[in-house]
Amino acid sequence: MKLKDDKKYARIFGAVLKLVTKKGLAGMTMGDISKEAGIATGTLYVYFDNKDALINALFAACRENSVMVSFRGYDAQQPFKPGFRSIWMNILRYRLHNFEEFIFQEQCYHSPYITAATREKARQLAEPLYALIARGQKEQLIKNLEPDILVAFIIGAMNELVKQIHYTGSTLTKTRMNTTFDLCWDAIKA
Amino acid sequence: MKLKDDKKYARIFGAVLKLVTKKGLAGMTMGDISKEAGIATGTLYVYFDNKDALINALFAACRENSVMVSFRGYDAQQPFKPGFRSIWMNILRYRLHNFEEFIFQEQCYHSPYITAATREKARQLAEPLYALIARGQKEQLIKNLEPDILVAFIIGAMNELVKQIHYTGSTLTKTRMNTTFDLCWDAIKA
Amino acid sequence: MKLKDDKKYARIFGAVLKLVTKKGLAGMTMGDISKEAGIATGTLYVYFDNKDALINALFAACRENSVMVSFRGYDAQQPFKPGFRSIWMNILRYRLHNFEEFIFQEQCYHSPYITAATREKARQLAEPLYALIARGQKEQLIKNLEPDILVAFIIGAMNELVKQIHYTGSTLTKTRMNTTFDLCWDAIKA
Amino acid sequence: MKLKDDKKYARIFGAVLKLVTKKGLAGMTMGDISKEAGIATGTLYVYFDNKDALINALFAACRENSVMVSFRGYDAQQPFKPGFRSIWMNILRYRLHNFEEFIFQEQCYHSPYITAATREKARQLAEPLYALIARGQKEQLIKNLEPDILVAFIIGAMNELVKQIHYTGSTLTKTRMNTTFDLCWDAIKA
DNA sequence: GATGAATGAGATTTCATTCAT
DNA sequence: TATGAATGAAATCTCATTCAT
């Protein structure tokens, strides 16, 4: 008697991510997923109770992953701007390199699959970002607007940039990354 | 003799927009739409060949509408910044006041309902915005980056702001609109 | 106030006949018929109570027409064989020149559209043919088998010949008509 | 693990054949078929892509079956006439005993369900019959007409006979079979 | 646990018929 | 009478989920 197979979770998640950019969340059936993952439909139900649970689990995983990556290498001791910059770059790189995860999360956010609980949990994961903004404001380096507005601005701009870059297929040189960061920085700096 | 009723197009479109915020694009059936519109299911097929066609038509209509509104009152003779500002405000107001249309368009963009042709047509409608950016660059008022990047930045930031404002239910005072515009302007100004 | 238009009956019947070879009886909708006839769907219901009535009416018309033509020029005074021959030729020519009517009747015969009453009426129209066969048998020119069998044989063979000729697109010369008649005659002659 | 069930194909085909004589090809729904076959509607789509595919598959199966049976017991070494006779009898018996299959094929032939490919494949299966006719002509036992004409004549006559016999409910004694064969033979013999 | 056939509720679409003009 | 939009019942087909192996 075999135990649940961790590799299979990965295969299933991978399949969903691959499909979401092609078919969207709406047009993706359990049959599609199982086929893409190379397993039987029934097997999906060994690993997840139902479609909702599957989507929610992947959403949570992506979210956690994305936050972890964002703050990688961040040192609260260093001055604000370079710290903020490295986080900004982390997020940008993450979304570009994990474009499918990024799109998946976007699609989920306004879908009926995601429960209120999952949504709330996702929001909490953004806390460190709010804290960072607060620090910048305290140090009078960042405009003194509501943090919600600032975060929305920063994230919204970045999201669209990522799509732009991905869909036009343009390579992102260091210089270009710098200039786009400057756009953001000029917007929010005090 | 009964003729095809223009009001019915409006009723159908209205129904879809009402439903999309409640159920999402995925969870919206033709039955839901017809019921919401107060007509028989079969009647939907008098006006549209199928669900895809219906969604595409509404998408195109929203897109066109949104562009038309954006440039309302724009006078190319006036100096750049106030012109740009009025357009930016138009877009913001439009998305806030027609939040359902805005969400609908976002949901559509990565869905399998929208055809490549519709997507391309949507892109073309953004041309005036690109032209405006070009003018700003020519007058050396705006940073000399690729217009794609600048547009993505402006639009992305605004989209997220709109959602932020809508979901938190905060009222948008004139002062707040001004400060958010300043965020944008500071980002892109030369 | 206009009266029912005789030309319209013809247009409707013509449309059905044109469609039956293309789409078959099964795949033919009232919409198809009205479009092909160049009238509105609703108008069909001015002329016929419903689809069944329409099909039955056309079936009856075809049947009557086909019988009328079969015995055209037949003179009961002339000797049997030439009389039988001319009738046989009449039937063959009719089916070839009115191939659509012929196919339509075949399709109807085993369809749920045709009522038992219509079917029975159709059978009665074949009476003269039975009478003819009886005469041939009385004159000991034709095999003394049950008339049903003989008629089935003659008609069945001819029907298949007609299709053969029509679909291969071969032209039917006088000589070929004669040889095919001889096939039939050799079969049934005493 | 459950595997696709060959018996289920048979059940489905059986259901269609049972229904076609009752309701005709037109009036037969997928719901009717599944009910008659004692399975769920959805299950039909496990076995066939759609209604067309189902009808085409059954048509092909009937055709193949009918040809196989026709030449059962045929020995090319024996003289022509008894060989031809045994095949003729095979075909007649097959159509009588599998009347539903026979009617189904007839209904299909001019229906929109059957694709050109299926039609062509059906034609090819008739080749052995053409070869047989050719042999008879070579041995100068059969009239020297185009084989198409002869086959059409033989088959057409038989088809109508079969219907005649079936619908009148008359039992087919050996003597009657012989006399009807003689009709056919007298027609085509040199 | 793994499989994929089986299920049936529900989605999309069709179409004979009606109805307002 | 003529029109063709409107209807809704019924047809086809899909798909999340279950179940037998």
Brief descriptors of the model:
mainly alpha; 74% helix; 190 residues; elongated; 10 helices; Tetracycline Repressor, domain 2; Arc Repressor Mutant, subunit A; 2 domains; DNA-binding; homotetramer; 0% strand
| Percent in helix of chain A | over 70%
Provide the CATH top-level class of the largest domain in chain A: Mainly Alpha
Runs of chain A in which pLDDT lies below 50 for 5 or more consecutive residues are: none
Q: How many H/I helices of chain A?
A: 10
For this entry, what is the oligomeric state of its chains?
Answer: homotetramer
Describe the protein in words.
The structure is a homotetramer of 190-residue chains. By secondary structure, the first copy, chain A, is mainly α. The first copy, chain A, has 2 domains: 1-47, Arc Repressor Mutant, subunit A, CATH 1.10.10; 51-188, Tetracycline Repressor, domain 2 (Orthogonal Bundle). Chain A has 10 helices and no strands. Chain A has helices spanning 6-23, 30-37, 41-47, 51-70, 80-97, 99-109, 116-125, 127-138, 147-168, 174-188. In chain A, helix 4 (51-70) packs antiparallel against helix 5 (80-97) and helix 4 (51-70) packs across helix 6. Chain A is elongated, with a radius of gyration of 19 Å. The N and C termini of chain A lie far apart (63 Å). Chain C binds chain D through residues 21, 23-27, 103, 106-107, 110-113, 143, 145, 148-150, 152-161, 163-164, 168, 179-180, 183-184, 186-189, and chain D through 23-27, 103, 106-107, 110-113, 143, 145, 148-150, 152-161, 163-164, 168, 176, 179-180, 183-184, 186-189. Chain B binds a DNA duplex (21 and 21 nucleotides) through helix 3.
